[in-house]
Automatic annotation (TrEMBL):
Keyword Hydrolase appears in the UniProt entry: yes
Alphabetical list of Gene3D superfamilies matching this protein: HAD superfamily/HAD-like (3.40.50.1000)
UniProt keywords, alphabetically: Hydrolase
Protein name (record): HAD family hydrolase
GO molecular function terms noted in the UniProt entry: hydrolase activity
Amino acid sequence: MPVLVASDLDRTLIYSSAALALTMPDARAPRLLCVEVHEAKPLSYMTETAAGLLADLGDTAVFVPTTTRTRKQYQRINLPGPPPKYAICANGGQLLVDGVTDAGWHAGVQARLADECAPLAEVQEHLLRSADPVWVRKHRVAEDLFAYLVVERELLPADWVKELAVWAENRGWTVSLQGRKIYAVPKPLTKSAAVREVARRTGAELTLAAGDSLLDADLLLAADRGWRPGHGELADSGWGAPRIGALPERGVLAGERILREFLRAARGSTAGSTAGSTEVGQHP
């Protein structure tokens, strides 16, 4: 049975120049491959070694990019290896199959959000009213599913994100700070739900996952095995759980290490060792 590998992208497998964390002497820095260009400028990178590992992984397992990015933002990325048959965008709100949106999946997500959460418009209005233009650079809505702010981190008040999280909690939303972005996301909008659907469609008996942010916690907990890098929201808070490897590497070298772990686990799996785990999150 196939192994499913569901991985976050930004600051997990791919890195902006600001997130590379190249702390070694320049002469020892790894060679980098640009995997995303935006407005004619290079934007995201992985090491050349990681690119080779990802190509191998695509031949070994069902690799599913699993991102909070919108479909348009995801489609800017040019990953090495075979094109993924499945991709999860908008934190689970959009499922792409051979690059095409699965309309039925999206409709089901929208119905659940309407039933269980305060409306997006209420959250937008609160963000516009409470966020100070002194430190907010952009207000954005993604796929009519969730909202985020682009901020100047050094000007952001220390308690503002915590206060927003308390406000959002009472309305069925969650808040995540990732780099210069503050996300407000409905609680039922999860990567893990979409990954379960891909596991069902592919018949995967083993699911591996990786991610660095609060929005990846449900994905990691739902997988049979998972890894988080030494940077990001989860590492900064000391978050951990059984079957989750807390890696010491930070920056772009963490992405390389995560891919090595994926390959080792995928190649080492057997039908016997995964018997009884026929759905994401079900363990013997």
